[in-house]
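User: Can you help me understand a structure? I only have the sequence.
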Amino acid sequence: MKTPLVSVFIPLYNAEEYIEETIASILAQSYINLEIVIVNDGSKDRSREIVNSIKDNRIRLMDNEKNMGLPYTRNVGLREAKGKYLAILDADDLAHKDRLRDQVYYLEKFPDCKAVVTDYKEFGRKFNRRRKIPYNSNEELRISLLFKNRIGNSTGMIRVRDLKDEYEYNPKYFVLQDYEFWSRLAYKNEIGIIHKTLTFYRTGHVNITKKSLTERFEKRRKLLQEIHVDSFNRYKFILSKEEQEIFTSIFNPDTHEDYGSYNRLLSVLENLINQNKKKKITSTNVFERVCKEELLDSIANSKLRFIEISSLFKKVSNTLFEISLKQKLKVYLILSAKKLIRKY
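Assistant: Let's start by predicting it. Here is the structure, written out as tokens:
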């Protein structure tokens, strides 16, 4: 296998508790032709001091003049990367020792792919869990991004020399900048998927994103709807303002919509499915399969009652697509497990 240079980019802001362990997970990689590009965004703790204490000439530490925010900092990383590939890793996450090796091998093997992402595991909570991308093809992943972000940003490796002149993070998105970035990237470019757990995503601690969710909830909702609307426009889907709002209200991880909202969503999905058939935007089978997957996933994460879910499944089967007994049982089991976890 060729060994092109990989730039591992780490945005740094007040991560003194985690940054040493994060860097150690990169220095321990089985793939060694790498540089670590760290951009310090005005940290007020010991983060910068800790990075400087690690003696390895592959580490490049840069400082923003002041705290500029995550989109700006990510764009500095894109511009400063010297490698053929750029691997993204947030300052509190960890990389499996073979992450870079496996992703470089994939991108070298499939030169048409502009990026590759992987499964990941959340850790830090009482109940750790693996986050598996429920799709196998680029087309499925691309359509799924109409609904929500299935990509763990810290799992991404991009062909940075091909992309950094065209793709940057939008500074408007103080949150959701990763979702907006991947949505644009996936529209024109092929993204590969490796079904291995190659990144470990830390949860259960206070970070900028969680603070933003609580303090600027309404702004976040509006940005999410803008991502959805922009995506619909790219693919030439036409939805009314009311349909856009219903769609975002359901596919928003911060809200739990009621039975009536899901009923209204069915007509929105039916509209999208019919437009796709007429305009031939993508494969009919793929589009309907992704619609069903995203709908079932949303229901599984909802607070609907079992009787409401049963009624909803009946309507779905009569209007959109058949939901198998196995799929129904899966949703019921997930809901039961969530209720059991909340109880304890």
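Now, to help you interpret it: The domain at 6-209 is CATH 3.90.550.10 (Spore Coat Polysaccharide Biosynthesis Protein SpsA; Chain A). The CA atoms of residues 180 and 227 lie 6 Å apart. Let me know which part you'd like to focus on.
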